[in-house]
Structures
1.
Amino acid sequence: MSDLENPTGTAPRSDGGPGNFVDDLVRDDLAAGVNGGRLMTRFPPEPNGYLHLGHAKSITLNFGLAQRHGGVCNLRFDDTNPATEEVEYVESIKADVRWLGFEFGERLYFASDYFEQLYAWAEKLITDGRAYVDSQDLEAIRAGRGDFHRPGVDSPFRNRTVTENLDLFRRMRAGEFPDGAHVLRAKIDMASKDLNLRDPLMYRIRHATHHRTGDKWCIYPMYDWAHGESDAIEGVTHSICTLEFINHRGLYEWFLEAIGVEQKPKQIEFGKLNLSYTVLSKRRMKELVEGGYVSGWDDPRMPTLAAVRRRGFTPEALRAFCERVGVSKRDGVADVTLLEHAVREDLNARSPRVMGVLRPLKVTIENLPEGEVVWFDAAVHPEHPELGTRKVPFARELFIEREDFMEDPPKKFFRLSVGREVRLRYACFITCTGVEKDPATGEVTALRCTWDPATKGGDAPDGRKVKGTLHWVSAAHAVEAEVRLYDRLFKVEDPMEVPDGGTWKDHLNTESLTVLTGCKLEPSLASATAGERFQFERMGYFCVDTRDSKQGALVFNRTIGLADSWARMVAANKAG
Ligand code: ATP
Ligand code: MG
């Protein structure tokens, strides 16, 4: 297997597993009977935005492990921050996980359901002398923590008595103080080399309404305090997270030890998925949505799961892509053409073929009388004869693709020009005899052609050959549609690499969306329904838009074109 096919270099295991180091660790634990042979993972999104392709990797990894090894995987919302969370996000995340093909069923949890338990543990830490109420403001706290070179200094409130701390903490909960008046901090070690252990914050006061607990709480646990404890409450055995949490591991372990849990979740860090030409960050995606750079979280150019679903990507393709990029101990950037390759591979196998003309040029078949229709049979899928055929009508007025005709063709142009003969896909040969032009602009507005009835079925009985085969649609039978073509949202491989004075948004591709109206599609598409996918021959893969398409006013998204740059690269790599 070449590097290109397997960019992270993880070898598949002989027993067909995905062969990544996380899988190996889990397998070894199960074999050794750790946790009594029990496996529980979780996917823990913060409901502050829509899920993106990076999350697909985490979902596939966590749910995939549980599936392969007879374990379970929880969907847990890390909803500890009332300011940024919305019910809309919770619902979209649930829908996205299901769409990807994973079922959490009853295993749906919210960190906010643990607020009471977390509070009780916080009181225990205070009672044990391991937490205290600090009344400095956040700036003073930050300054007091020092940095890599300087140890921190103790807060003047660090040695409050247990009684005083308990009293203040209870009054914090009761709502006696405004935001920012006090925080609860763990009492660990202000000189620790591990900065996260320099008396980290556990609670802050925030008079805000939470999407689930309403106004019940005005103190909220910090993510670091809630996260490992939530894992422990659920009985998670393997807490799989991305690399940025590696420095927090010591703190998580300290907290778990302090509350006295017996079976500690094992934290395993892996490298985030990054994609070339793509920005994977909820915060930045939100900026694009709110700034009107895209039409919404599900704008088909976005890297959210909602957007790629709307665009026509399949969950099977995304899962295959996630398996292919593998799981690595380092952060890396996957080539977006690998994702596109996975999408094409899956769509090629499953999409029925149809003909659609995106930029129509009218053709009159002069030797076919008006009103006469010849019906041809066209295979639904070239590799699946069992899917049968559909009927396509051939009549005097047709449309072909404007770019399939040239008045003055260069040498390698094998399509139509005056005096040339080509094949119409599934139908017959036609020869162009003349053109009509706009007298003002000189632009070709229509073609005159003749057909050879002897070539019905697509070949000439006298054995003469043609070099070009075009797709086409009968004008009288055509279904009109709007078609939206998409290009990459960013012009450069690494949009976060920004020259001085610029912003990542300078790299947005202003030509990422092309809307074509008046496209002419073969009549079998009249009944196409929202979300249905097709290959338009020679033009790519398309699906019916789920938001804007209506009966009688169809809107198609181009999921992706046919040209596969990844496959070409792999082939070139093999050859050379
Ligand atoms: P973002 O940086 O886009 O805001 P996040 O990490 O803040 O993402 P969370 O909701 O906290 O988003 O993520 C839920 C889970 O998904 C976490 O376990 C996180 O580690 C994982 N995850 C997030 N981004 C990626 C990524 N690019 N690749 C793999 N896993 C990811
Ligand atoms: Mg996060």
2.
Amino acid sequence: MADRQIGDLERILLRIDGRGYRAYRDAKGRFRFAEGLLCIDHVQGDPFATPSRIRVRIDQSKAKIPRSIFDTPVSRMALEDYLARRVDDRLRKRGHSNSGTGKSGLVSIDSGGQEVIERTALSVTENWVEARLEVGLPAAGRRVLGRQAVQLLTQYLRQLALDSLVFSPEFADRARAWVACIENQESMRRQLRDRGLVCFVADASVLPRSSGVSDRPLASNSLVAFQSPPSLRVSLKLAHPVAHPYKGETEISGMGIPAGVTLIIGGGYHGKSTLLRAIERGVYPHVPNDGREYVVTDPDTVKVRAEDRRGIEKVDISPFIRDLPDGQSTVQFSTEEASGSTSQAAAIVESMESEARVLLMDEDTSVTNFMMRDARMQRLVSKSNEPITPLVDRIREISESHQVSTMLVMGGSGDYLDVADTVLMMRNYEVSDETAAARRIAAAMPNARANESPEPFPTIRPRIPDARSVYPFTNRGRVRIDVPSIDSLRFGNETIDLRCLEQLTDRSQIRAVGWAIQFAARQFMGDDVSISRLLDELEKLMNTHGVASLSPFWRAGDNAPHPGNLARPRRHEIAAALNRLRSLRVSSGST
Ligand code: ADP
Ligand code: MG
């Protein structure tokens, strides 16, 4: 349909004033105003339902955002992130202006938390800049409040867009600084592999968060800013000079952790898990002043943990577990209810299948019998009665023959001193490099335990998902993909438990995981298509068309409707969610 004028929208809204809420459907469509376009793509069913999806667009002839600040995928993603937050700031200043029943008058944008990742909330092109909003259309009871709707849609949203999206000198400086910070992080991340590093933690970083429920930096007198031990200090090049506390330098110094096996030891409450968490989040860029913005980690770093009771579908956990008492094979191990050790073993193998290059594990979320078995216990319980080959006997192989590095927080077992390349110690929130001391101790006190790994760690066998087992429909035949809570995903009739996926960022990312799985099942799954192939295809799709292309509403070109709120997931979280779908069935492919 051809675009109408904003005046037409005004007339429609006044005409339906006082009518039943469904009359708002007449307002669907695209309406031009002098500087841009307002698109009402989806109208909520009633005042309490999920808000309506509305886009407001400003033409570049008015917005005048210079092409030079969004001419690469990273700068564009960063600029879009910045602009979404600007819109959000304006919305917050407006406050909760609820002028009627239910969600009447509420306006929101999905602008994200401390991480900066590609989102559908805002889009910049050479021709326009567009905010994708959720708007509660005003109602009194179940009646349309037409006059309020005119004010909200034709005046407020337009002014909101003009205020937050039109370029000005003040805006330009802040936007450039924001984009530069994100570009720095991504360029630092790209330097890691060439330097043989798995992560980098800049000096002066602020790692702890203000509380268990807040992701903001700790601001307190007791804060200890990060300082690299001299032996591990390296410098990475910056794409743009950074300000405080790095004094406009073009290099940034900090701790570089080399590939291989790294152990983080130290007493309880000395900051071990805080360091590991900062590293696990370092797969994503962070907002300026997060404190962890210059903590960068290899993008294929996966946090692995025990998760008893999850389902497992034909995963080869035999490198860790074999000869179960019930005689079940562990080469294609399936269970409806995993134990701590089988779940942790499966998580490692699944992460290797999704092509992780670094695995992170924390004693706080690992199971002891999977991590270690000391010499005395080996003597008491003979190997023939113990199905588990502990990680300590596999970790070097994983690093050497599979090129997968590991970082472990382990305060309690000296057995790992023999297998670690790097040993870091946390003491009063300060890191020291104890690698040499650990070697001395390992040499002076030879370990009496025997290595238990019976045969080489096998190559990871590809698994081929059966598309029919990945079923997004409910009993009533409708696709249902939604996010009932921050750590679950509803997929058809099933609710996937995502509590143990610590690297998920937010609900929009989970929603995108759901659509990615659905998309893969519909488009890519087939006779010989392994999980890692599916992940490659999904990444290719997102690299070409953006995360929006996962949306069921997406189409190519300038006229796609509001895609819904999505944020780009990593391949590892897509795989992990698929692996937790209890209906999943796979067959094994040829290696
Ligand atoms: P561990 O894993 O060694 O037991 P945690 O990492 O859980 O210790 O940290 C214990 C507490 O110390 C947490 O409340 C955390 O926020 C705080 N903390 C961690 N690092 C720092 C730091 N650099 N400065 C101040 N407090 C910190
Ligand atoms: Mg801890």
